[in-house]
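If you are new to this repository, start here. Below is one unmodified record pulled from the training split, so you can see the exact layout before writing a loader.
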Amino acid sequence: MTVERGLRLMAGVMVLLSFALAHYFSLYWLWLTVFVGLNLLQSAFTNWCPGMAILRAMGLRDADYGAR
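And here is the target side for that same chain:
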């Protein structure tokens, strides 16, 4: 798994988790979804987000789009 795929996985899990927490506990958990969405929007322009640093520290590699 690459950093890019791991980041999409992490974002999807966080959105679904915040939805479940908002449904069962408090609607304030939807702010987690807002944070994830803003973070994804920011990373689209800068190509960096904290999740990428975490995934690289866990040993995931960057996608090598040019090598085939």
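Two things worth knowing about this chain: DSSP finds three helices and no strands in the chain. Residues 3-57 form one domain.
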